[in-house]
Amino acid sequence: MSTTFFEKTTTEVRYDWTRGEIRAIYRQPLLDLLHRAQETHRAHHPPNRIQTCWLVSIKTGACPEDCGYCPQSAHYKTGLARQELMDPRETVAQARRAKENGATRFCMGAAWRQAPEGREFEAVLEMVRGVAALDMEVCCTLGMLTESQAQRLKEAGLAAYNHNLDTSPEFYGNIISTRVYEDRLRTLAAVRRAGITVCSGGILGMGESEEDRIGLLEQLATLHPHPESVPVNMLVRVEGTALAAQPPLDPLVMVRTIATARILMPRSMVRLAAGRKQMTREAATLCFLAGANSIFVGERLLTTPNPLPDEDQLLFRDLGLEPLEGPTVRCADGSEPAAEHGE
Ligand code: SF4
To answer: Which helix (H) or strand (E) holds 272?
Structure first.
């Protein structure tokens, strides 16, 4: 039987998307976009299943970077209490609690420009080993990494490394001045070479244009392989940060961006990340319909508020959503993570 055009567009995995193609997908009537995204989603993922990830800050504040959205940057006065690196035993205890609460992925974030060497890095490796031993997917976000650090994290059992591209290359300089887009791509390449899966996405509502959102999607969707995990965040406007006065983002922009990401990167986990607290249940539901199949749970996401676990459980129950079980860290091309996936 020949493959129909629709089957082809929903099952094919491509890495050569052009900006024009992405723009055409992004701009189509929303209901058409949602329909195609949902068809794509069901061709690659079990329907009505959502993975819950637990995100914890293992080192908070005093970051030398000036990311305009971030309350942890030392450049802004946000009143955030600084916290030194967490004791690995405490981290593993938190992971155990997260697992008891249904989370299958545990993400540890540290506010560093560059992952340090020495005692602190050894402590992070100990955390990774401890959480991996609980049979959870372990993810870290520690800033820029060297090849050797990526390799050591892999050996400790790290499944995924988060390093967001945030926005388009053109808009990046408006948000961050202490590093360049190329630095981000270099760390992603080191992570990939070490055989760790990639978690990389962006933040919407920072004053970027529609073209910038399309540009971000182009960057992600032309990585080969695609990031296995694509978090889509809505800016949380924290008092004192450079972006505190941004107008609120229309949640339909989140929906449109998630749907486009789902179509462009059909096998990836698309995660509805920060900003859920600012969204209605109905907006979050549209994000799931658009192809988001993961959320972050816990009362705080690093330092900003998140819906309470009870609210999430109620939403899951009302929508008939079940937890996604089993590992999700297979590479976006369907294979196991392996070192030969160089870029
Ligand atoms: S986003 Fe990360 S790198 Fe940027 S200021 Fe915050 S903690 Fe530092």
So the answer is: strand 269-272
